[in-house]
Design goal:
Low-confidence stretches: none
Distance between the termini: 24 Å
Shape: elongated
Mean pLDDT: 78
Number of strands: 4
Order of helices and strands: HHEEEE
Largest sheet: 4 strands, antiparallel
Strand order of the largest sheet: 1-2-3-4
Strand content: 35-45%
Structural class: alpha+beta
Length: about 60
Amino acid sequence: MKSILNLTGVKNLSKKEQSQVFGAARSQCWQNGSQCCVGTAHGEFCDAGHCNSNGYCLYY
């Protein structure tokens, strides 16, 4: 586990930098039966879970 935490050459991005990454966007989720769905740059992704009040999926 420590080797994962001690990565070299990795930069933590600020919120502003994160928002400028291609394809990065806060996506709201929606419920589709027992699945939680989000839109991605490649289409729609759904899996078993539920959409919480913050707009994020909580997957089972």
